[in-house]
Amino acid sequence: MNPVKVIAVSSGKGGVGKTNVSVNLACQLARRNRRVLLMDADLGLANVDIMLGLRPKWNLSHVLEGQCDIQDILMPGPSGISIIPAASGIKKMAELGSDQHGAIVRALSGLNDDYDVLVVDTAAGISDSGITFSPASQYVLVVVTDELTSMADAYALIKVMSRDAGIKRFKVLRNMVDSHDQARDGFERLNEVAQRFLDVTLEYAGFIPRDRFLVKADAKQQAVSELYPGADASLAFRKLAETVDKWPIPSGPSGNLEFFVDRMMQPEALRGVAV
Question: CA 11 → CA 16, 28, 57, 153, 247, distances in Å?
Fold first, then answer.
């Protein structure tokens, strides 16, 4: 099986642009000739299909109900990415247990196509799906804005993931900031508190600037990287993709989707494991 880099995109709260980051990171990685699978893991409040104006006939709820296979729900997305859509407005999908989460990830091993990167757009906050999917990923990218609530909730998310899932390394992306200095300052504040009170390592992954073209792209239900490739936000997402592309893929069996499945099936084994 082809080695796969698995990245969970998380945030402490909603409204910080997490799904935008997931979509545009996926697009920019695809532009680097990577075969990218984007999974909407906000299982009950899907956002990826809404953001891109897609109308999936099938989604993950139908896979769980046995109405179709995961291969059947794959949708083509911008820049040649593939998308696994989730359900929207279905309460029971937002309240799945660990067995059902596991069934979803096991289904991933049934995909026929090989991928280089799996980007997992998790639910915001300390929801079950965020806590379930992130430990199974090789990298956790936490999206943080300059709002005090975003910073506080990002800290709470990192604390819970460290304590309950054994994740000790996090990548931090600063979003919707006005300058590099503002982005670095905000990261350093978060990192200082984390170093003082938590046994974790935070690594700066870069920043995405505030950009009116991103807002315009959202209104048109398109990815800014696709619609306005020369926009400041698009260039920042391209730089982020370059950075992510340099993150190493674990060697051996830990570098494929079976690893993702195995990690999901053995939550107790995750405790104390650095991701």
Answer: 7, 20, 28, 8, 20
